[in-house]
Model the fold of this input.
Amino acid sequence: MATANTDQIRDGMSQWASAMSIYASTSANADTTRDNGLAKFWADSRFTLWNGLMLDEPVGDNEKLLSHLEHARSYMRGKIHTGLLYVCLEETTGFDFETTMVQRGFVRRLPLVGMELSELPPAPSACTTELDVVRVLDSKVAHDFASVIAEVFRTDISICRAEFVDKPFWRQDAFAYVAYLDREPVSVSTVIQNGDALYVGLVCTREQFRGRGYSYATNRFALADAHANSALERAFLHASQLGIPVYEKLGFQSRMHVVGYALSAS
Done:
């Protein structure tokens, strides 16, 4: 990863926290406040990706980290549904951060790489033309969107229908897309307006259709369409290791690392 400057790292942190706050806010009782060095984006939803906290300031010593972790642990234990505490690794230098996390009962769950595309739309490139990419604007496509999310995230379909079919956000405010192969849904992606940039999330392809360029094609279409409808020039996302090559092909560059930690069962 190319060395990112402090502003780029902070941009990556801010984009994650604000995008997750937008997602969480689709639930009526979401907590999107900030205090005790924590940004909260906790929907207390059965779709647990919407339940999160983030250390939103540099943590340069163990004592400061311990204080934040105590607040986070108390908060998370008071909630009905599980979630994650996210930490930017570039903001936790100078001490044995990982050991402290383990000692305080946090387990590494979700490592992500923050990435930025500084110029939209993505550059033209040869890609599959066999897909029909459709924006989520009606109930039928919304149901297909939910079914792909449920399958890939291994989540109960009723939970995904409650999140992505019943809530109008995904049809009215987000740019959400389903890619079809011979009328069968194979891949999905979403783009939201996040301040002065676009944010890409909920990207996944069904396992049996991976390795064919479908994720690249779906995301390229999604970014181009969202750019045309918003005129925003930058895009951000936070990628798993599996997704990084796809996003690099689209022109994204790595900027920072975020890791989500769960509370241990003990």
Notes: The longest helix spans residues 6-24. The chain has a mean pLDDT of 92. The chain has eight helices and eleven strands.
